[in-house]
Structures are given as structure tokens and as C-alpha cells.
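User: Just a sanity check before I run the rest of the batch. Below are the C-alpha cells for the first item. I only need the designed sequence back.
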């Protein structure tokens, strides 16, 4: 069943790609959307289907009023209410979108932002947050209005772990 929130988020996430950001071949560099210290209090749980239950991002605990930062260079697709929440959505190179909620936006639609720019201020009241305030940070790859994939945003900021494997013996 499509709730008003699901319908509103679907409308937001199917906005057309901006040519300047989508046409770039260079992958953006990402940083945490909150300055440390912050704690990951809920991890990514991908939905089985577009409207199935799941957790389409991660929740980061921080005090209310904490500055929320652009995780990478991009353009603001949306900054304002979506159903009963206030959301900022950024479009990055290659069609990757990041979303941030709940916050008080300090940016506006169409604005260019750089990694680390303040895009808002964290608000309390994120449902399911075990702390006074949590930032829900999501990532989504959109290749067409019909094709979108929710991604775990943590690999964007966590270092890749290199594993050394034993070399086969030459016996």
C-alpha cells in the first residue's frame, strides 16, 4: 500500500536528472554528513521491492542543532517538506542522490554545494532514533525514472579494506 509519505518520496526521487551533474564521468569524493563525534545507530536494510519495508539509509546520532553537511559536491534537488518530514536531497555526479532528514534546510533548490558545505541543522524527532536526534542519511542511484537502486551510504565514507590472500603454492 502506498502511503502519502511513500508517494511523496517517490515523486521526489523520480525528478529528472540535472544535465550538469549527471553528465560528469568523475566519481565524487564523499565525507561524513556530520562532524565527529557521531554514532551509527541504525544500519542500512535494503527493501526487497521498491515499496517493501526496509531501512533505506543509515541513522547517525548527534545532538539537535548539529550542522548537517553535504557529503559530496552536487546540486540541491529538494530542500523542504516531504509529507511530514523536512528533507534535503542532493544530486551528485553519475546520478547518485543523497538524502538528509530531519533538518532545518539552509539551502534551496538548484543551489550548487561543495563537500562539507552546511546544508541544514539537525532537528530532533526522527522516528525510531534511540537518541534525542538522529540524521537519516540515504543514497540512491537513479539511471532513469523507472530504475533506481537504494544503496548503503556507509561505503561512501568508510575506507576500503584490503585483504591479502595467500598465494597459491607453486608445487
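Assistant: Here's the designed sequence for the first item:
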Amino acid at each position: 500500500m502506498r502511503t502519502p509519505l511513500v508517494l511523496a518520496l517517490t515523486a521526489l526521487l523520480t525528478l529528472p536528472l540535472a544535465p550538469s551533474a549527471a553528465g560528469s564521468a568523475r566519481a565524487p569524493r564523499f565525507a561524513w554528513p556530520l562532524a565527529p563525534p557521531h554514532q551509527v545507530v541504525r544500519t542500512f536494510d535494503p527493501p526487497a521491492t521498491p515499496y517493501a519495508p526496509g531501512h533505506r539509509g543509515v541513522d547517525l546520532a548527534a545532538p539537535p542543532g548539529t550542522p548537517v553537511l553535504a557529503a559530496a559536491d552536487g546540486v540541491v534537488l529538494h530542500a523542504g517538506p516531504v509529507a511530514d518530514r523536512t528533507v534535503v536531497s542532493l544530486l551528485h555526479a553519475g546520478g547518485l542522490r543523497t538524502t538528509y532528514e530531519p533538518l532545518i534546510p539552509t539551502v534551496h533548490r538548484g543551489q550548487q554545494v561543495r563537500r562539507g558545505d552546511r546544508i541544514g541543522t539537525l532537528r530532533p524527532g526522527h522516528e525510531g532514533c534511540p537518541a534525542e536526534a538522529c540524521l537519516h542519511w540515504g543514497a540512491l542511484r537513479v539511471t532513469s525514472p523507472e530504475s533506481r537502486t537504494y544503496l548503503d551510504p556507509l561505503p561512501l565514507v568508510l575506507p576500503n579494506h584490503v585483504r591479502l590472500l595467500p598465494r597459491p603454492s607453486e608445487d
